């Protein structure tokens, strides 16, 4: 599962960046848990949470598709689409003055990667039933 390993590794710095932004904000705002009603901290927490809500399942689908024999070009295309979507979404959601178009494009790419990953798994699993 070399392709999935590559895409998971390329997603890791984004998760680390989204997560490490929260710690200094918590210290500066004296908030141990939650967001303390601070909009900037809420935005940072939601950006990190959104990543962890979508990326792991998409990467799981990618791994299952690859393990089931989906061609490498397809696995890599889905992985690239997911990463581009997650980066665009992260850029959009972390802006204090948000341009919603980044979030829309990022989530659209993420949803497309999940749908394509699911389709690849379905095709691969059904091809083994014959």
From TrEMBL:
It is found in: Membrane. Pfam families: MAPEG (PF01124). Signal peptide: none annotated. It comes from the Bacteria. The keyword Transmembrane applies. Its main location: membrane. The chain crosses the membrane at residues 73-92, 104-129. Keywords: Membrane, Transmembrane, Transmembrane helix. This is Glutathione metabolism protein. It comes from Neoroseomonas terrae. The lineage of its organism: Bacteria, Pseudomonadati, Pseudomonadota, Alphaproteobacteria, Acetobacterales.
